[in-house]
Design a protein that fits this description.
This protein folds into 2 domains: about 60 residues; about 130 residues, Sandwich (Jelly Rolls). A hairpin with a 2-residue loop joins strand 7 and strand 8. The longest helix is centred in the N-terminal third of the chain and has 55 residues. Helices cover about 30% and strands about 45% of the residues. It has 1 helix and 12 strands. With about 200 residues, the protein is an alpha+beta fold. The protein is rod-shaped. Strands 3-2-5-10-7-8 form a 6-stranded antiparallel sheet, with no helix packed on it. It binds calcium ion (2 copies). The site of one calcium ion (CA) has 8 residues, from loops.
Length: about 200
């Protein structure tokens, strides 16, 4: 029969041994968790790097371009020539502004106009349709060549053209002026040439 003190000593030893063992196990486990976390963070950074490289280098450029007009506003002299520049603005590709007898730009109601340019992108070789309307005069050029001559002093009048254009970028130039009284200006075309992914 074992002495009670010996039994107590054995039990205490076992309990202490278990606690030490558990403590050591926990310490090892905890250090593994820490290293796992470091591995996880490292892996996450690596994955982000790989993904961003994939999106930047491998996928095609998904930036979308919307064609817009860049306008330079000019005074119109009584002689019929362009006068001083009075400002700039940007318009959406398709528009129909009916000013009536109100101000057209700034406080100018008459004898004012603009020279505007816009880049378009033909997705295909083939015909393209343009319509311009104006009170008073307007003129549309494609790559410097006059495609619609709606110039002169007159009430609102629309003119259109359909011609072949090659695939790729082209520059449109639109001139417009109001001589007096009512003023209105519009532009329209096939929509597929106004939005593209370069
Ligand atoms: Ca006017
Ligand atoms: Ca007019």
């Amino acid at each position: 029969m074992l002495d009670a003190k010996i039994v107590s000593a054995i039990l205490i030893s076992v309990i202490l041994g278990s606690m030490i063992g558990f403590g050591l196990s926990y310490a090892v486990f905890n250090s593994q968790i820490q290293s796992l976390r470091k591995d996880f963070v490292y892996t996450k950074v690596e994955i982000e790097g790989i993904l961003s490289k994939y999106f930047m280098d491998i996928l095609p450029n998904t930036r979308t371009v919307f064609a817009r007009w860049n306008l330079t506003w000019l005074l119109v002299l009584e002689s019929g020539e362009w006068g001083a520049s009075v400002g700039n603005s940007t318009w959406g590709a398709v528009f129909d502004y009916d000013f009536g007898t109100n101000a057209i730009f700034g406080s100018y109601t008459d004898l004012v106009g603009f020279r505007a340019t816009m880049t378009i992108n033909m997705q295909r070789d083939g015909p393209v349709h343009f319509v311009i309307g104006s009170d008073d005069g307007s003129e549309l050029r494609v790559d410097g060549e006059v495609w619609i001559d709606n110039w002169g002093t007159h009430g609102y009048r629309e003119m259109s053209v359909t011609r072949n254009l090659s695939k790729g970028n082209h520059t449109l130039t639109l001139w417009y002026f109001d001589w007096n009284a009512d003023a209105r200006v519009s532009f329209n075309c096939d929509p597929d040439i106004l939005v593209w992914n370069p």
